[in-house]
Specification:
Length: 602
DNA sequence: ATTTCGGGGTAAACCGTTCC
DNA sequence: GGAACGGTTTACCCCGAAAT
């Protein structure tokens, strides 16, 4: 739209710009106008990105040259001041050094500057202090008792050793090494206390030492260095405490494990933070924010928080504020991660639901083909190709998800809104007919001709029910009655049965779809059933014939409505349009309620 | 010196609203 | 009904910091 002609050319390299996104107008390169002018490029021309990159690099190099020169100058000056502060170098006249220092860089001005009234500047106390040589070794012959904190006159005076003190607590340290004896009278109160402690306990307390400001700063330095080391240790690749290596990490993040590994990797920093915060979760939050500030790869908690608040409906501005605070990653990254997660979920659905459905459909088709072939050639030479991956059968669950949005100000446009959605989930079956011995599987029978006594529990079934009830009652007793509590460990946790290993494994459970339809209306329920049918029921795509029926569970209301929808569609011709591939089943709590009702009536 | 990853800039694409 | 406009999303690229 904005392009002046059909073909866009780079003004510098004359290459045609093929990708419409990779060019820059020279008007936008304001900071490089001078460079562009020297190259003969005027305003409102177009440059390809590789030329723009080169220009940027040029700019960076210019900047680098400036900063490097500046840095070198600083370094030189620093070294020079160091050298000039050395005792031997002091005699060199300031003028010479000054001249040498400046002649290269500062061009002499033509006019002589007027002398400032304040010059020569009175020397600051600090510079005077610097000139007094410190820690200069006294020649051995002159090594005597040195007193600190007293005027120089006294040092000259020979009577220092007999000076009278009005304090009754006096400390004098004598050190003997290599045959030389040196002693010093300690005036500083902190040092006095430390020496006293050494006398008393043969150890100095750090608490006392810390009373000296210099010592405290040094201690702080030590701790700081230690903590910095710990922080860089956390950042390292092998310590992936706060890193997002896999999207599964986001789901499996465990505060307890995180605390443990932090206590191990960074004990000092952890103790410092937890001494301030107290609460474990707060400490971890502080830790995470700090580590995110140091290295943006440490972003697992930021991602979790960001995704959570995003799902609660935070705006982009809100996310930006939280990102600036270091609590979440940027809104853009959240968006990116969300897309990634959606793709992953789609992949998962494909691998379980779609794969199973396709497998069933394919099996029927190949069987039909085989039959046709057999009929044609009368030779059963080919065998049914068996897929190596046998996908476990699935069942579907669903429930309505209603949200009411109340605007802060109700106007004619902004009214209370109710959103009705339907969430469809998938669960992989753990125990199937194939797991039973063929002996145990009851043969298929017509419900209408079944003898009436089959509806009553037989002796064996009642016995097993009573056994199981006993098991449940024992669990309740052991839980609540004090003197029975010690017996808890002797009672099996679960009622033993032959599939206990299978039921112990974690279920495969997936959110499949959020359908924007209300189950309250018949049309909504029908569209929901259509989606479920399309997604999860294996059927022949040409004749719309159901190959296998799938359980579709939900609460009693959903069940009722699904059943009504199925009945409403009975006039349709094909099986798929009649929703024949769905078996209704009430779920969870409702089933338990039904069970209890049965027991109650017993 | 190279690699990795998140932040951020830019422009196209897209979407909804308003105006003529 | 379509142009104009404004806001949002998305793809692409570069940059910088830290790790390797």
């Amino acid at each position: 739209m904005a392009a002046p002609s059909n073909k866009m050319m780079c003004a510098l390299c004359f290459c045609e710009i093929l990708n419409k996104k990779s060019y820059r107008k020279t008007d936008t390169l304001k900071d490089q106008t001078v460079t562009l002018l020297t190259l003969g490029i005027s305003d409102s021309q177009i440059l390809c990105y590789s030329c723009v990159n080169k220009l940027n690099k040029l700019k960076k190099l210019d900047y680098d040259i400036l900063t490097k020169v500046e840095k070198l100058k600083c370094e030189r000056n620093e070294l020079y001041t160091q050298l000039s502060s050395l005792p031997g170098a002091k005699k060199i006249s300031a003028e010479v050094s000054k001249g040498r220092n400046n002649c290269e860089h500062t061009p002499k001005s033509l006019e002589k500057r007027k002398r400032n009234v304040l010059t020569p500047t009175p020397k600051s106390a600090r510079s005077i202090k610097k000139q007094i040589p410190q820690n200069r070794e006294t020649p051995q012959s002159r090594r005597r008792l040195i007193t600190f904190g007293e005027p120089l006159k006294q040092q000259v005076d020979k009577s220092t050793q007999t000076v009278m003190t009005d304090q009754d607590f006096e400390v004098k340290v004598t050190v003997k090494y290599k045959g030389i004896e040196r002693s010093r009278k300690v005036q500083d109160d902190v040092w006095k206390a430390v020496v006293k402690q050494i006398l008393n306990n043969n150890s100095a307390s750090m608490k006392t030492l810390a009373k000296n400001v210099k010592c405290r700063d040094q201690m702080l330095d030590v701790v700081k260095r230690k903590i910095q080391g710990e922080a860089s240790e956390i950042c390292k690749q092998r310590n992936a405490i706060f890193k997002v290596c896999d999207n599964k990490d986001l789901k499996n993040f465990d505060v307890r494990k995180c605390t443990e590994s932090l206590e191990e990797t960074a004990p000092y920093l952890y103790q410092v933070l937890s001494s301030v915060a107290g609460k474990k979760a707060h400490t971890i939050t502080a830790f995470s924010t700090l580590m995110y500030g140091r290295n943006m790869k440490n972003s697992i908690l930021q991602y979790i928080t960001g995704l959570t608040v995003d799902s609660c409906g935070i705006t982009k501005e809100g996310l930006q504020v939280l990102h600036d605070l270091g609590v979440t990653v940027s809104p853009r990254s959240i968006l990116r991660k969300k897309n990634e997660l959606v793709l992953e979920q789609e992949e998962k659905i494909k691998q379980t639901v779609t794969a199973y459905v396709q497998q069933r459909e394919k099996a029927v088709v190949t069987e039909a083909e085989l039959h046709a072939e057999v009929r044609q050639h009368d030779e059963a030479t080919c065998t049914i190709p068996v897929d190596e991956n046998v996908y476990p059968p699935i069942e579907m669950l669903g429930d309505n998800l209603d949200i009411t949005i109340t605007p802060s100000k109700i106007t004619s446009d902004a009214q209370r809104k109710s959103l009705h959605w339907f969430l469809v989930m998938m669960k992989q079956k753990k125990i199937t007919v194939e797991d039973f011995n063929s002996m145990q599987v009851r043969e298929q029978r017509d419900i209408m001709t079944l003898p009436k006594e089959n509806w009553l529990a037989n002796h064996h079934q009642t016995g097993s029910l009573i056994d199981n009830m006993v098991h449940s009652i024992i669990h309740v007793l052991v839980k609540y009655i004090e003197f029975l509590k010690p017996l808890k460990c002797d009672i099996p946790l679960y009622i033993p049965h032959e599939f206990i290993e299978k039921t112990q494994t974690k279920s495969v459970f997936l959110n499949c779809e959020l359908i924007e339809a209300s189950e309250n209306s018949a049309s909504g329920m029908i569209s929901i059933m259509e989606r479920v049918h399309d997604l999860a029921v294996p059927h022949t795509r040409q004749e719309n014939k159901v190959i296998e029926r799938i359980v579709f569970g939900g609460d009693v209301l959903t069940n009722e409505r699904a059943f009504t929808a199925q009945q409403n569609m009975q006039l349709n011709k094909s099986e798929v349009d009649r929703f024949a591939g769905i078996i209704h089943r009430p779920e969870g709590l409702h089933r338990q309620m039904n069970f209890l009702l049965v027991i109650d009536t017993y």
